[in-house]
Amino acid sequence: MNGASFIGSALMILLLLPVLVLHWEGRAVADRLYGLIALGGVGFAAILHGVAGMMLAAGIGLACLSLLSSAVAGISLLWRLRLLTGGHIKLIAAGATWLSASGAVLMLGLAAALFVLAAMILRIRKTADPRPDMAGIAAIALLSAQLMT
């Protein structure tokens, strides 16, 4: 991992913090914050890799957005479960613009594994709300994938 990647990780953390704090406080997160995260990822890719990197970052973000939206809609229709909200999907898709294609796949796998693990722990502990904190899980998966790739 070179110096530019560390700078990118630091910028991503700075952009993720307001979203996480607002979510944990129970306040609504404005869509412009998700847009700012996505624009930061696309802009950073443009600085590092030019127009090709910018287009790749935007494509990765759009692919994650469409993949997650389709998967959540399918699960909702089949099993009547509402696992993720639109804010969670936008957070993961916006964060994916900071990653490479392999990093985005890694991030999606980590997010899914952490979500299932947290849901199982909450189910065993018999909490009132068996749905884990997906914003925190998404942030952990994004940062882990960013540091691993």
Describe the structure in your own words.
The chain is mainly α and 149 residues long. It has helices spanning 3-24, 31-79, 86-96, 101-125, 134-148. The chain is globular and about 50 Å long. The chain starts with a helix and ends with a helix. The model has no long low-confidence stretch (mean pLDDT 87).
Concise overview:
It is built from 5 helices and no strands.
Shape: globular
Please work out how many helical segments DSSP would assign: 5
Number of strand elements: 0
Percent range of helical residues: over 70%
Q: From N to C, what is the helix and strand string?
A: HHHHH
Query: Radius of gyration, Cα only, in angstroms?
Result: 15 Å
Q: Classify the secondary structure makeup into a structural class.
A: mainly alpha
Amino- and carboxy-terminal Cα gap? 8 Å
Q: Mean pLDDT, rounded to whole units?
A: 87
Biggest sheet record: none
Low-pLDDT residue intervals, each spanning 5 or more residues:
none
Give the percentage of residues in beta strands.
under 5%
Which characteristics define this entry?
149 residues; mainly alpha; 5 helices
Give the topology.
Layout: H1 3-24, H2 31-79, H3 86-96, H4 101-125, H5 134-148
